[in-house]
Amino acid sequence: MKTLTFLSRQAPFGSSKAKACLDMVLASAVFEQQINYVFMDDGVWQLVRGHAPEAIGAKNTMAALPALELYGVDKVYALEESLTGRGLTPEHLQIPVIVCTKTQLQAIIKASDVVTAL
Questions:
Q1: pTM here?
Q2: What architecture does CATH give domain 3-117?
Q3: Which three-class secondary structure state does DSSP give residue 26?
Q4: Rounded to 5°, angle at Cα 30 from 99 and 8
Q5: Residue 46: which of 26, 71, 64 has the closest Cα?
Q6: Which of 24, 28, 70, 81 has the greatest number of beta carbons closer than 10 A?
Q7: Could you tell me the CA-to-CA distances from 46 to 50, 52, 63, 98 in Å, in that order?
């Protein structure tokens, strides 16, 4: 089993990168890989509860985040600096996450076999 780390750095709307990262995470989890799913930079906006993308004609792909647990993805992180820089706390988020520091993130990346950033 390999450890795969996915760094999701993009806002949930405006490009397909957020959805692509989520799709890769779910596909990798099906093959029983150890997954680290890290939300950082504007990617933390994907975690915020209450999105209404229909108002801008977009699909709510973030509605699939609660399914991560069903796929065995239990290591979901949010970079502390990214949350606080955007005025967010774990209470704003739609799923539980592990809040990590930059130092902890560096250790997660170092321990990974593969790292993908989108």
A1: 0.92
A2: 3-Layer(aba) Sandwich (3.40)
A3: helix
A4: 35
A5: 64
A6: 28
A7: 10, 12, 10, 15
C-alpha–C-alpha distance, residues 98 and 74, integer Å: 9
pLDDT tens digits, 58-116: 666 777 899 999 999 999 999 999 999 999 999 999 999 999 999 999 999 999 999 99
Give the E-state strand segments of 21-106 in sequence order: 34-39, 76-79, 98-100
Q: Which two tokens stand for residue 58?
A: 């977009």
The alpha carbon torsion through 92, 75, 80, 47 (nearest 10 deg) reads -30
